[in-house]
Structures are given as structure tokens and as C-alpha cells.
Amino acid sequence: MDDLRSLLCEARDQGFLGGLPIERQLEHARGFAEVCAAVLESAALAVSEPQHEGQTLGRIVQVLDLGAGGGLPGLVLASSGWPVKVRVILLDGSIRRADWLRHAVEELGLSERVDVVGERAEIAGRSARLRHLQSIVVARSFGRPAVTAECAAPFLVAGGALVVSEPPPPLGSAPDEGPSYAVARAAGSHEVAARWPPPALTELGFGPATEWRARGYGYVVLRLESLCAERYPRRNGIPAKRPLF
């Protein structure tokens, strides 16, 4: 973990991570891991790896970090203990950040279970090697809800889940008290429903957003109930310029 902390400090110095203390950012990423593990347990999601030299490499869960930036939560997810085999894909549209992520993956010895893809989400979401193959997509600070939902949906298998960070506590404050393990709330708040309106989510194949807590941080989980239409994602920049909601 010391190697990861050192790399995250390097990422922060290069402007790839925010200004919160590294330990708090790590704790937030661990919360992502706990929510993802709980989501996987409830859905029993798995997809097959592609054929390699005439043999299947087994059944795995594929997790994609949308806008991986400085490697959180993706590097923590890749380093976490999972009850199933997991493949993590770190996706970032910046060549500079993608190059740094490859460096970090190599330094941490994670090359066998982590891939780095340096492409915009609108392009990667139409790639046959990524589209409708991910069990989980995570998004820490990718963009506003409409952009995140539209760019995430094309990656997910039916029944897969988008796990998104809720706005974090302000700098200088501590996260609110909460369980150290992931807990789902029975119903989302009006504030969450306003940010993630159910009718608009249905257009992308998502069910309603549910709220989760882990390690004192908030997350939203959206299940993909049906595969999104072929027209999504729209071309580069359009999800942000003309958001669906």
C-alpha cells in the first residue's frame, strides 16, 4: 500500500488528483470497492474473457473506471480482494494521464489484471472489445450525472451496474459517520431523484438510482435493466453539450 500511496502523491503533484489528503481519497476508493463487492454479490455478475490461443481464460468480472485520472478508485479496485476473478479497465481520454496510469500499473505489478485504454468514452463505448462487456462501471468525478450515465451505459452488460460517487465532504471536514461496510438505502432521496431523474434514466436502460453508504461516504448505484440503444453514446462532446437531462 505504501507504493500506491507514493504513486498517488505523484499523481496529485501532476494535477491528476484533487487536493484532499491522500488517505481520505484512499478511504473513499475503499468505499467504492465495498459497494462494488456488495453489488456483485447481489447480482452474481460475470462475463467470459475473450479466447486466447484457442482457449478461454475463464469467467471473470470486468470493471471499468470511467475517467480514471490519477488511478482512483481503479487501482484500489484492482488491488482489493475479490471472491471472483476481476479484470479492471482504466479508461481516460487524456494521453498524458493514460501514459501515467500505465506507469502506475507497471510499478504496482498489476499488469496481469489491469488494462489502460487511452480513449474518450464516446469512442471507447462503441468498441467491440468494450461495449456491453462490463459488469460494473465506476465513476469518481467523470462529469455531471447526464454525461456519466450516457457514457457509462454502452459499456455495461444487461443487469450490470454504474457506481457513482456522491459529492464528497468539503475540504477540511471529516466524512459523516457511517458503516465501514456497504449499505443500501431502501429509497433514494428527492435530491438524488432530481439529479438522476428516473424517466431520463429509462431512456438509457437504467432503473432508478439507489443510495449507498460505505466508510462514511455516499454513492449512487444504477442498474442497467436493458441494453442501451445503438445511438448511445452520441459523438464526441455531444453528451456534455446537449445533455439528456
Would you kindly provide a written description of the structure presented here, covering whatever features stand out?
- The chain is of the alpha/beta class.
- The chain has a single domain (2-241), classed as Rossmann fold (3-Layer(aba) Sandwich), CATH 3.40.50.150.
- 33% of the residues lie in helices and 22% in strands.
- The strands form 2 sheets. Strands 1, 4, 5, 6, 7, 8, 9, 10 and 11 form a 9-stranded mixed sheet that branches. Strands 2-3 form a two-stranded antiparallel ribbon.
- It is globular, with a radius of gyration of 17 Å.
- 44% of the residues are buried.
Question: Gist?
Answer:
33% of the residues lie in helices and 22% in strands.
Which features would summarize this protein structure in a list?
33% helix, two-stranded antiparallel sheet, alpha/beta, 245 residues, Rossmann fold
Radius of gyration: 17 Å
Q: Helicity range of the residues?
A: 25-40%
Calculate the mean pLDDT score and round it.
89
Q: What would you call the shape?
A: globular
Oligomer: single chain
Query: How many structural domains are formed by the residues?
Result: 1
The CATH H-level superfamily is Vaccinia Virus protein VP39
Describe the secondary structure blueprint for this structure:
Elements: H1 2-13, H2 22-43, E1 47-48, E2 51-52, E3 55-56, E4 59-66, H3 74-79, E5 86-91, H4 95-107, E6 114-117, H5 121-124, E7 134-139, H6 145-152, E8 156-165, E9 183-184, H7 190-195, H8 198-204, E10 210-214, E11 217-223, H9 238-241
Parallel strand pairs: 4-5, 4-7, 5-6, 7-8
Antiparallel strand pairs: 1-4, 2-3, 8-11, 9-10, 10-11
